[in-house]
Structure formats: C-alpha cells, structure tokens
Design goal:
Elements lengths: L1 E6 L3 H14 L2 E7 L2 H11 L3 E5 L7 H5 L9 E6 L5 H6 L4 E4 L4 H16 L13 E6 L2 E6 L5 E5 L2 E6 L2 E5 L3 H7 L3 E5 L2 E4 L3 E8 L2 E6 L4 E4 L1 H11 L2
Parallel strand pairs: 1-2, 1-3, 3-4, 4-5
Antiparallel strand pairs: 6-7, 8-9, 8-12, 9-10, 11-12, 13-14, 14-15
Length: 237
C-alpha cells in the first residue's frame, strides 16, 4: 500500500483526488494540505512514498515547493495541473509523472504503476527545483514570504528553524540543510546557523578556535572552527 500526501489549494480538487485514490485500494492518503507550508510539514511528519502536488498554487507554487523538500528521504512526486503547458517543466524537475485536471481514473492508475515500478527497483527520486528566492514562514495564521536578500541569518534549535531579519524572527518549516543548498547567499557558519554573505560586516576572531560574525545591523552570529575556513574562502579572504 502506497502512502500519499496531497497538496492542492483547492478543497474540491483535494477531495476528488483523495476519493479516486481510495477507489484504487492501493493508496493510503496520510495527509491533505492546502498550501506548501502544510505540505512540507506533512511530508516531514509522515514520510510518504508519493506526493501529489498541484503546480499552480498562490504564494509558493508546486515547482518552488519541490526545492524545499528535504532530500533524504525524498518522496516520489506526481504533479497535478489544469494546464498541460506545465508538463515539460514537471519532467524537467524529474517528476515521476503528471496528471491533468480533472484527473481520469485510468491515467491515475498509470501514474501509480510508474511510482510502484520506480520504488520496486529500489530507487529514490532526485528532484530538481529553482533556487529559493522567498522563504515561506508562519506569521500567526498567515504565511509570510521572506525574500532571501532580507535574511541576516537562520538559526536552528529545539524549537525549530527561525529566519532572522531586521524586522524580527520568523518560524519556517524549511531545514537548514535545504536553505543551505537552495537559498541564495546562505552559508553554513555553525552547526545551528546559516549566515547571509551579503550581510556580513566583519569576522571577529576571539581566539584560535572561536570566532563570531557581526552583521551590518550589529547582530552577532557564532562561527565554529569547522566552518571558519570555508566561510573565509567564500568571502575571498
């Protein structure tokens, strides 16, 4: 039995696809999500085999969300769209398949066959996506999109991952690993911190084994010995 997460901003579309998947008796829908933030959380919590992902969503669309999914373990992705013009983009991102709305049962069955064959061969998908230009964060009941250019640093703790800007701190479902790999100018400086290269004012060496960064706004960010040399190399110093 395949385990699936559905991500679509339209409730009728989610309900219709969930019903079609239930009729196949081959899939358990473990979560249905109305936006990318909910989808990222559900993928992290449930570790599905396959994600049925709508492309055309407000705020963060399906192609952008693909860049934000943790690489390990990466689920198979089947894009769902009302526009066949998106099909080429879907396959450029190494999607397993794509479905046109309204989804036809026969076409859905073929997509599920592709997923089962892929997983049955012991392979795991490697999806490509665009660089992350805007980071989805939670602001109460709303989703706030933070431009990566605004980010001074990102920190991780037991409470989660927080994006730090001059306007405050914002919780995000994205991991440091994803933001380091896909976020523009975000570089690891500590096990629990990323720093934006464009916001670094100076690197202060406290002693041979420790240092800290001072950002242009005056914020202090720790630098561990392990990441000091690579950081200096990225800065050309």
């Amino acid at each position: 039995m395949l385990r699936a997460v559905l991500v679509d901003d339209e409730l009728p579309a989610r309900e219709e696809l969930a019903a079609l998947l239930g009729e196949t008796r081959q899939v358990t829908v473990v979560a249905t999500c109305a936006n990318a933030v909910q989808g990222l959380r559900a993928i992290k919590d449930t570790l599905p085999d396959v994600v049925f992902l709508d492309i055309n969503m407000p705020g963060v669309d399906g192609l952008q969300m693909l860049s934000m999914i943790e690489a390990e373990p990466m689920p198979c992705v089947v894009f769902v769209t009302a526009y066949d013009a998106f099909a080429l983009d879907a396959f450029d991102r190494n999607a397993i398949d794509y479905l046109l709305k309204p989804v036809e049962p026969g076409r859905l069955a073929r997509a599920l066959d592709r997923v089962r064959r892929f997983l049955g061969e012991g392979r795991r998908p490697v999806h490509t996506g665009p660089p992350i230009e805007r980071i989805p964060c939670l602001a109460g009941p709303n989703i706030k999109l933070i431009d990566t250019a605004e980010v001074e640093c990102v920190r991780s703790s037991e409470a989660g991952v927080h994006v730090i800007t001059s306007r405050g701190e914002f919780f995000t479902e994205l991991t440091l690993t994803v933001l380091e790999a896909k976020g523009r100018n975000l570089v690891r400086c500590h096990k629990q911190f990323l720093v934006n290269l464009a916001h670094i004012d100076e690197i202060n060496r406290q002693d041979p084994t420790a240092a800290f960064i001072r950002t242009r706004s005056g914020r202090t960010v720790p630098v561990s010995r392990r990441f000091l040399a690579p950081l200096k190399e990225r800065l050309g110093i």
